[in-house]
Each structure stands twice: as structure tokens, then as C-alpha cells.
Write the C-alpha cells for this entry.
Amino acid sequence: MISSQMLKGMLEGCILEIICKQETYAYEISKLLEEYGFGKISEGTIYPIILRLQKSELVKATVRDSNSGPKRKYYRLTEKGIVSLYEFKVNWKELEHAINNLFIKGGNEDE
Amino acid sequence: MNKLTKEILKKNNNREEFISEENQEIYTNMVVYLRGSDLTEYNQEIVREDLIELILDGQQRGDNIQKVMGGKYKEICDEVIDAMPKKTKKDKIVEVIGTSLNSLWILGVIAVIKNLAVSLISKTFEFNFIMSIGDIITTILIIILSNAVVWFISRTALNEKQTNKKVSFLKTWVVLLVVFAAIILPSIYFDTTALNIPLIIAVISVLLLFFTSKIINSRVY
């Protein structure tokens, strides 16, 4: 299981990517993260992150009726969100490269 | 509270009726914790609306609040508070004035009724509004202590429950005794008259306080 401290900085970008793929809601984001191997991440954990993304105008919410009961907030990426997701991916590539370099040059036996 | 906030509050009050008994306590504690935060009343209701829908959505699937929120209620609330815009200095000043005026008109009504009763019972029919120095100290203490109690309850709403019932019971009694002593003793020992005006002037003043508080509170965002 990925440690929550490690996940903290990454989740914003990962949620942006999920929302970029499809307009979606908190529970679906939680389920998709689980399917991608992030482990169980509750809607309670996702909600404050979405609030931050909304505050930064990276995502927009629309309230719509769901097929099964209460109304749901569906989130979609804004133009600013698309740019931010691109920057996240660039940063991630740099970080991945740096960490891989460190592990390989550091003589990690697993590599 | 402004009109828009009142509308969401009313809607939320209706929606929260559908939260199951099992989820009710934790949901209430989360809302109480948010009430004590630096969020404007409008943003508190926006967050409350989201929490209600998340919980109801969970209930629909058969998940309880623990599963929906992941169990870390205080942490989630702190992150939510952190993510939302805070009250500005102006918001805070307007809110403090609004709350103080609210307390003053309510305490004013009580004082008017007390003075009216004294005039009728003593059969002097002077209909004066008399306040001693002790009454004024008591009024100020009631306002300060009630705000302190609300602050304490909201700040500790999501703390781990006190397991030792005896200690908790004693603590409650000590706090209550101190509060009652602080409220009652000044009116007994400081009985020098500080204010003596016709009752009708007091009634008009209380009405003015009431309408001013309504106007100011309608501007609280």
C-alpha cells in the first residue's frame, strides 16, 4: 500500500487526470483510483482535494440527478486545469527520471 | 445571515433529515466543528450540502459514514477548512457586531420583563428600567461565557470521547458552578444603580437593538 504521506502531493495531479478522461463524481474517482492500484481512498479524502482544485479554478462542478437517488456533483476540467495537468505530467516525468537516476546510480540491488 | 445563505440552510435542513440514525452523530459533530471554523456562513452551508450528498450517496450504496469519510473526520474537516476561502476582517467585524447585538436585544427583553414584573408585583407602578452595576457585569459575562461555550463545543466536537465518566461528570459540574457563580454573584454584590430610565425608553432601545441586529445580520455572508 502506498503511504498516505507519499500520496498527498500526487493525488491532485492524479485526480485531474481522472477528471480529464471523463466528467465524474467523488465516489467514481475513489473507485477508479482503487482500480488503478492506489488502494482505498475514501470520498472524504478526495473531497478536500476537489475543493482545492475548484478554488484554484482547475475544475468546475455541475449538480445533476444521478441514476440511483441523490443529486451528484459532477466535475470537469477547465482550460486552466488542462494546463495544470500538463505541468503535473512534465514535473512527474522529471521527478521519475531523477528518482530512477538516484536508484540506478545509487546501486540499488532491485534495479 | 443573508438571503442566499438562508435558502441553502433551509434546503440542507430538509436534506439532512434523510441521513440515517447510524450516520447522524458523526455528521452532526462534523457540522458543529465546521461551525466553529473561520469559514463564512455561506461556505459552511456549501460544505454541509456536499457532506450531506456524499453521505446520502453512500447510504444508497449501503456504505456508512465511516466508509465514506475514511474515519479521519477531524483531518478531513481541517483540510476542507484549509481549502475554502476564509472570512475577511470585515466579515469578522460584522459577525461579532451582529452576534453581540443579538445577545443584547434578547437580554434586553429579559431585563424589560423583569423590571415590568418588579413594578407590577411591588405595586409601585413606576415602570422604570433599573440596572445595577452588577446587572451590567452579568450581561457582559453572559455574552462572553456563551461565546466561550459555543467555541469550546465546536472545537472539541471531533475529539476522542472522554472515557472516564466520573471525571467528565465532575468537570461538567465544576464548570457549571463557576459559570453560575460568575453570572449570579455580581448582581448580588454590586447593587449600585447604574441606569434608571423610564421603561418605555428601554422598550424603544430594545426594539432599536432588535432591528439593527436584523439589518447587520442580513449582511453577514
